[in-house]
Specification:
Layout: H1 13-25, H2 36-52, H3 89-108, E1 118-123, H4 136-147, E2 153-158, H5 167-171, E3 175-178, H6 183-186, H7 196-203, E4 209-214, E5 221-224
Parallel strand pairs: 1-2
Antiparallel strand pairs: 3-4, 4-5
Helix pairs in contact: 1-2, 3-4
């Protein structure tokens, strides 16, 4: 039997918070048998989740506006800012899983566009697919890494310690780029295929050097990646000096 939704039920997160607060202060709760302290604890947890997830969860609206990343042709990159959710790692994982689920459905459905490729770049990969985790989000990322490359979803992940990432994700990586790495990390089972000489080289790489590991290579390939010619952040900008002051235009710095 299908039951219709209660039209008087809270339709937004803000109304739900108010409803829970009323239950904690009411002697005639619609759900009897729960102590007021239980209601207050539920309210505090929901309050933190809703307010710290600002920008993802809409407090005052009954319908959201989910991000649509599906494209029918080549488009400019889409940058999803997860930094504002730095205090809510579970919400960061929720956003990433939502995007990946959209891509999986787009590439495996009947309307999949032949030849279209999606490239997903994730930093701090262990946050989204940690080693030993079996939750649905980790399993989704493992499935993308293991099965979806042939369907046009390319996952590029970055992590300081690969040993902290799901083994299934690492093992299904077609290409691995290894920068300067400590002996403790290189001693992990995930790097046991490296020869002693390759491990020694990995421990002594320069910042611009990387070891490229691919199944078709007999040995890791040493490559040098030049630094960009422009500043990546304000701290890297070249400040005026005695040698280049004549070439600097200070007109924009004058306070009118």
């Amino acid at each position: 039997m299908v039951r219709a939704l209660n039209p008087k039920a809270p339709s937004t997160f803000q109304k739900l918070l108010s409803w829970i607060e009323e239950q904690s202060n009411s002697t005639t709760s619609v759900l009897p048998g729960h102590h007021s302290g239980t209601w207050k604890k539920l309210w505090r947890r929901l309050f933190r989740q809703v307010y710290e997830s600002n920008g993802v969860l809409r407090r005052e609206e009954s319908k959201g506006q989910p991000l649509d990343v599906i494209r029918g042709q080549t488009s400019d990159p889409i940058v999803v800012d997860l930094f504002s959710l730095a205090t809510m790692p579970e919400m960061q994982r929720f956003v990433v899983a939502t995007i990946l689920r959209q891509l999986v459905e787009a590439r495996t459905g009947m309307k999949a566009i032949r030849g279209l490729v999606y490239t997903v770049v994730l930093d701090e990969l262990n946050r989204f697919a940690p080693k030993g985790a079996r939750d649905p989000i980790t399993q989704l990322i493992e499935m993308v890494a293991a099965e979806m490359r042939s369907q046009g979803i390319i996952l590029l992940g970055a992590q300081q310690q690969a040993s902290r990432v799901s083994e299934k994700v690492i093992e299904n990586a077609a290409i691995r780029a290894l920068g300067q790495t400590g002996s403790l990390e290189l001693g992990m089972p995930i790097w046991k295929f490296l020869t002693p000489s390759a491990r020694e080289r990995a421990m002594n790489l320069r910042p611009e050097e990387k070891l490229i590991i691919q199944a078709t290579f007999r040995q890791p390939m040493l490559v040098r990646i030049p630094f960009p010619a422009w500043a990546m952040n304000p701290d890297e900008a070249v400040l005026p000096t005695a040698n280049n002051q004549s070439d600097v235009d200070y007109s924009d710095l004058i306070d009118e």
